[in-house]
Amino acid sequence: MGPGQHRLYDFASLTCFVGLTGLPIWFAVCALGPKLGLADGGYALEQLTLFWGVILSGVFVAAGLGALFFLLSYHRDNREMPPGSWVPIAGFAVALSALAASLSAAWLFQQQPAVSEVTTDGGNPPAFTEALVLRRGVKANTLDFADGYRPEAVIDPLVIEASADEVFDALLDIARDRRWRVGSVSRERDMVELTIESFWYAQTDDVVIRLSAEEAGGTRLDYRAAARTGARDGGRNARRLATIERGLRERLG
What we know:
alpha+beta, six-stranded antiparallel β-sheet, 15% strand
C-alpha cells in the first residue's frame, strides 16, 4: 500500500474501532436507558434502535469493508497482515451482526399491525378505571375506543373451563409470579387491572381483564391492553393474552 492507501486504511481501521466499541454501547443504552429515565421506551425502540441503529450499523459495515479491502491489498504485497489487523476484522464482524439483528428486528416489528391497543370485544371493551387513566399521564397514547377499533386490533377472547372465582385467583397468582403491577381489582365486578413494564426498553402497557360466566359453562375473559407510548406495540399485547392463557391452563388444568 502507498502512503495514501495507508492513511485511508488507518481512517477505516479507526472507524471500525469506534464501531467495535460504540455499537454495543449504543444498543445497550437504547435498550436499558428507558429504565433509567434517559429516553422514552417507544422512541428508543422505534427511532434509536430500529431506524438509527440500522443506519449506524450500515456505516460501520461500509467502513469495515473498506478496511478489509486494504488488508487484502497489504497481505498480497507483503504476505503478512499489518499490526492490529484484528481491529477492522472484529469491527466488521460486530457491525455486520448488529446490522443483521437490527434489520431483522425492524422487519419483524413492521410486520405487526400498526396498533398500540388491542381488545377481545370491539363493541364493548373492558373499561379502565379513572385511577389507571390518570396514572397513564398526559403524554400517554390516547385510548382508542372513542374512535372505534380497527379489525386488526380485535383479537379472539379466551374461555377457560373454570369458575370466575378460580380464574380471578389464578390471574392474581400469575401477576404475582411475573411481578406485574396489580392495579384496581374487584371480585364483585370480576375485573382485574394490571400495569406491565418490559425489561428491555421499559415498554409499559396497561391491561384490564373482565370475567363473565358462559352459558355453556366456564369463564370468558375479555381483555384490553394499551401501550402507553409508541405508534405500535409490535404485537406484544396480543401475544401477552396467549401467555396469560398458558398460565391459567397450567394452574387450572
